[in-house]
Amino acid sequence: MKKEEKKKRINWKRTFQNNAFMLRLLIKACPGVFILNLICTVLSAIRSFLVGTYLYMYALNALQEGVALKTILITLVGLIIFTVSEMLFQNIAACYFNVKYPVVNAYFQSMMQKKAVEVDLACYENAEFFDTYIKASDEATNRAYAVMNNFVNVIWVLINVGATGALIIAIDPVFILIALAPFLCTILIGKKRNRIRYDYDMRNKEVGRQRDYVRRTFYLKDFSKEMRLSEMWKVMYGRMRSSVAELKDIVHKYGYKVMFFRYLYDVIYNVLVYSGTVLLASFKTLVLKNMLIGDCFVVINSITQVAGNINYMGNVFLKLDENSLYAENLRKFLEYEVRIAEDENAPAVSSFERLELKNLTFSYENQKAPALANVSFTVNVGEKIAIVGHNGAGKTTLIKLLQRLYDPDKGEILVNGENIKTYRLSSYRALFGTVFQDYCLFATTVAENVMMRGNITDEDRVTVKDALQKAGICEKIEQLPNGIDSTVTREFDKEGAMFSGGEAQKISIARIFAGKQEIVIMDEPTSALDPIAEQEMYRNMFEACEGKTVIFISHRLSSATMADRVYLFENGQIIEEGSHRELLALNGKYADMWHKQADTYLDKEEVTA
């Protein structure tokens, strides 16, 4: 129990740092929002005191004491002019805030997206880190505004309570003591209520992410066929019901506690403060007759406002803590120390000559068996290397290490005799043009999907068309209404182009033809193509990659016949290596795989004939 209490104890230093961090980010995003909000707050606090408190007391007491009507009217007109001007200013400011909100949001999202690109690939395979990113992304902008509003509200309270409180103290100090009751209540129970609300929100987000995934499976194209041709929809429906049930349990676990604390506060606030003030003020005015009617009205009318504002000052610290809990997610994400980071001062890679792998060993997090173990080989400029083996043999992991998406646990990778860690990361990765097995097309134009960037020039357009031609998809693209400017998918464009799996894969392969990289890596680039289309594609690739270094992964060993050397992987190790002819002559596992696949293709051709 003591350990739990210690764990939940507020670290005020970190709390203030987190709030200051969020406020600095918002000011950096758009300083005008903060400055204008501060001005509006000061004017609003002054107007609230003058119109909501001082005006009633002045008018009633002036009439009771016989002040000249003209004097009263002049004061009223002055207050009306100030009020109208202040309200106009507030409305203008509101328009400004609406215009600038997307600017602030864009700043936060772009900041997070840049960081998301920098963080290590391993982070996205860590559920806890991914949850942190989702929570930070969902809350970033709104939480920054919450921090700012908390700050300016303190300014508002200080002005309003200072002026109103001074007025009430001048009337009778005992009423200020009554107004302190909710503040003491907040200090005593507010922290616990705050923690409960935070835990409730965090659990909702975690379960909500599961629910949202299930919801996507019912409408995204990726799942549409399987959902209709199997009973997976029942599994997903069951998951949805489980998520809803879990959300219901969360409400039961936390909702009643929040309700209790709210009820306790309402009783103290409404019964003790307001009712007590009405009784005491009425007694002093009607029975003791030592309080003017205007003073009585001010006390009754203002005491709940003062009590609420004093209570808010107690809540300020709790709000600081609440905002800090959310800001911590953002700081944790933004301050994550990238292991594989860009070093602008590191040297760029000169023209590629040789790639060496020395005793590479690598294991994924929380997996006992290594994905790669003591892998070594050399690739010289212009060579064509085939990596073959069954699923799970470590082939794709090797590709990730080559492009430094991960660093090996042991061993090293050398380019031109230097460890790749010594090179500038962007320069090293620029060596590679890659088509991954799990390629993806973005909801942008075909041209942008091929060039993998924006700002498409006329020269780029020629390159794109030539690449699509070599990939065997140009004719299909040219038939589209907007050609290479057609949007891929209909997610954001109802006239967007839809492609089959093979067509989409050809567009991804076109990236290789359009690129100028020195090393081409193809991870199962033709998995969605039939054997004849695959052979045609490989011929085009090798023609386009003349003089370039090519490393390709393929389950179909027919493509390995085009390679200078073949490496057969099994359980993360190289078990056979050599040319296609050498491996056949070895009559080992490669030869066995080759004959089985060749027999399969032969049977198909005979059946077709």
Secondary-structure map with pairings?
Blueprint: H1 2-8, H2 12-29, H3 31-65, H4 69-118, H5 127-171, H6 174-179, H7 181-217, H8 221-229, H9 232-287, H10 293-334, E1 354-362, E2 372-380, E3 384-389, H11 395-402, E4 410-415, E5 418-419, H12 425-429, E6 432-435, H13 446-451, H14 458-471, H15 474-478, H16 501-514, E7 519-523, H17 531-544, E8 549-553, E9 565-570, E10 573-578, H18 580-586, H19 589-608
Helix pairs in contact: 2-3, 2-5, 2-10, 3-4, 3-5, 3-10, 4-5, 5-10, 7-9, 7-10, 9-10, 14-16, 18-19
The strand order across the widest sheet is: 6-7-8-3-9-10
For the residues shown, what is the average pLDDT?
A: 82
The main β sheet shows up as: 6 strands, mixed
N-to-C SSE series? HHHHHHHHHHEEEHEEHEHHHHEHEEEHH
Describe this structure in words.
This protein is of the alpha/beta class and about 600 residues long. The protein is built from 19 helices and ten strands. A six-stranded mixed beta sheet has the order 6-7-8-3-9-10, with helices on both faces. It has a four-stranded antiparallel beta sheet with strand order 2-1-4-5, with helices on one face. Strand 7 (about 520-525), helix 17 (about 530-545) and strand 8 (about 550-555) form a beta-alpha-beta unit. Helix 3 packs antiparallel against helix 4 (about 70-120) and helix 3 runs antiparallel to helix 10. The longest helix has about 55 residues, at about 230-285. It is elongated and about 115 Å long. Residues about 1-5 and about 600-609 have low confidence and may be disordered.
